[in-house]
Design a protein that fits this description.
There is one protein chain. This protein is an alpha+beta fold. The protein has two domains: 72 residues, no CATH class; 135 residues, Beta-Lactamase. It contains eight helices and six strands. The longest helix has 46 residues. The mean pLDDT is 84.
Length: 221
């Protein structure tokens, strides 16, 4: 008889534990953490306590995630409100820079746009290579990690120090990209490959909508 057969039989015959309670009480098994032997009932109690501790740890983690998500959602809400108040592209960029640095703790950002009606006096409209255009097309979701192209790296000021992690995502109208936004940090763990990108994707959509609000399609004519 295999162990699984015994377990199945016990599940099908729960009265066994009442009928043979005295005999079960005489069964001793190794302690779950080594050392002396304990009764079967005590071993079961220890197992339940271990499971309870695991559940408490998991619950604590879930509560922490909930607190963090509420905080991020609140920050994103304030950014949304301020972007709605911005009436031109310069104000949008300034608002974005402030919120990213002061509220989200992202020290550096850079932005490039290729909208025909763009203000050539803004560095955000500096020409980009075809490589960047292709990169934006391929960014179906935000990228997080330690790598960007040399061209993107050159967009940042020379006094930023060594940038070790990046988040970059395309700004789109529908499925068509019209720009790229890159966030950067000196902390290698700030943007890492396995991090969740839900809020970064929402940020991408928010910034895209804000920019197209002040530079609509009819402004390109």
């Amino acid at each position: 008889m295999q162990a699984n057969d015994i377990v199945l039989w016990l599940k099908q015959n729960p009265a066994f534990f009442d009928d043979f309670a005295d005999d079960i009480a005489q069964i001793f098994v190794p302690h779950s953490h080594g050392g002396h032997a304990v009764s079967l009932a005590e071993r079961q109690l220890l197992t339940l306590r271990d499971r309870n501790r695991q559940l408490e740890v998991r619950l604590s983690e879930l509560l922490q995630f909930g607190v963090e998500n509420d905080s991020i959602s609140n920050k994103l809400h304030h950014l949304t409100v301020d972007l709605m108040r911005a009436n031109d592209l310069s104000s949008i960029i300034g608002t974005l820079e402030y919120h990213l640095k002061e509220r989200f703790g992202v020290p550096f950002m850079t932005l490039r746009l290729w909208l025909p009606a763009g203000d050539c006096n803004l560095m955000e409209f500096s020409p980009v290579s075809e490589t960047i255009s292709k990169l934006a097309e391929n960014l179906v979701s935000p990228y997080c990690g330690p790598y960007v192209t040399d061209e993107v790296l050159d967009w940042f000021a020379s006094d930023t120090g060594e940038l070790k992690s990046f988040a970059q995502f395309a700004l789109k109208q529908g499925e068509t990209p019209f720009g790229i936004l890159v966030l950067a940090s000196n902390d290698s763990d700030r943007f890492y490959p396995d991090m969740g990108t839900l809020y970064l994707q929402r940020l991408s959509e928010l910034v895209s909508a804000a920019i197209r609000r002040v530079i609509p399609d009819d402004a390109q004519a």
